[in-house]
Design a protein that fits this description.
Order of helices and strands: HEEEEHEEE
Distance between the termini: 10 Å
Oligomer: single chain
Strand content: 35-45%
Mean pLDDT: 85
């Protein structure tokens, strides 16, 4: 197993899972972004991580994460619903996903509306479980 903290490895799995859907991938919503971007995703995990009893599951920790999909609004300020829907569906289709140390399942898609910075947001929330026997995967 890597010397990196487990959360770093989970983030690496998430980047691998969701990379290539939008023009950029960020860990958390950046304060500023390039004006040339038409879409990007922001990946985050809740800070509550629960231990599961070893022996009762193939997984040791569980939490949930979310991918926020940001799509630039049309010049008139309205939502680019076609692109928003297409990219959200691409994210949803990636799940379930098994990475090196974690499994992402049970996607729930929510339209969030405008972020007041020229982008519209769709959130895909998903369950995260870490694999107990990481070295054998």
């Amino acid at each position: 197993m890597s010397d990196k903290p487990l959360i770093n490895l989970i983030y690496a799995d998430a980047v691998q899972a969701f990379n290539g859907i939008a023009e950029a991938v960020y860990l958390g919503r950046p304060k500023t972004i390039a004006t040339s971007l038409n879409s990007f995703v922001s990946i985050e995990f809740k800070n509550e991580i629960y231990d599961l009893a070893a022996g009762n599951s193939d997984f040791s920790l569980t939490t949930y994460g979310y991918v926020d999909l940001y799509v630039k609004a049309k010049p008139d300020g309205t939502m680019n619903i076609n692109l928003q829907t297409k990219l959200a569906e691409e994210i949803r289709k990636k799940l379930p996903y098994k990475g090196k140390v974690s499994v992402f399942t049970r996607p729930v898609v929510s339209m969030m509306g405008s972020d007041n910075y020229g982008f519209n947001v769709t959130r895909v929330t998903f369950n995260v479980r870490t694999i107990i026997n990481i070295n054998n995967n």
